[in-house]
Design goal:
The protein has 149 residues and is of the alpha+beta class. Helices cover 44% and strands 21% of the residues. It has a three-stranded antiparallel sheet, with no helix packed on it. β2 (24-31) and β3 form a beta hairpin.
Length: 149
């Protein structure tokens, strides 16, 4: 493992533990050269999911892209990073247990929106505004009215 601080390949594992979802292994490492500590996560490489975009184009599923979108929706809210990581892990698990390796982006958006709605309404509205392509204030108003009911 390459140290993110000094680039040395001489690192040692200090601590290993399973994550809460039991799908990743968290390793605490120490760089022998610069003596700084860092954390790595190890997961089994699964088959590649293909996302079918709204315009019909296909691209490989990116866990990081999904996580970044959720982080943007959760900015300036009280949603902790751990909750975001849990949403991403649950959503990916749900997608991988589905019938197909090709998934419409609409389905991914719906999964995330439903999860965000349960933990933070503001993050949900922010995510939904992009996912559902709100074009004017009335679209926001309709979605907020649904939340209030």
């Amino acid at each position: 493992m390459k140290c993110p601080y000094c680039g040395s390949h001489e690192t040692e594992v200090v601590e290993t533990r399973d994550s809460e979802d039991l799908e990743t292994i968290r390793r605490r490492r120490n760089c022998v050269t610069c003596e700084k500590r860092f954390t790595t996560y190890e997961r089994v490489e699964n088959f590649h999911l293909i996302v079918i975009k709204k315009d019909g184009k296909r691209e490989q599923f990116s866990r990081e892209k999904l996580r970044n979108g959720i982080i943007r929706a959760c900015e300036k809210t009280t949603v902790p990073v751990e909750a975001i990581d849990k949403i991403v892990a649950e959503a990916e698990r749900e997608l991988r247990t589905g019938d197909s390796v090709e998934i419409e982006s609409k389905k991914i958006g719906q999964i995330i929106a439903n999860k965000l709605k349960k933990i933070d309404k503001v993050a949900y509205i922010r995510f939904a505004s992009v996912f559902k392509r709100f074009v004017d204030v009335e679209d926001f108003e309709k979605e907020v009215q649904k939340l209030i009911k």
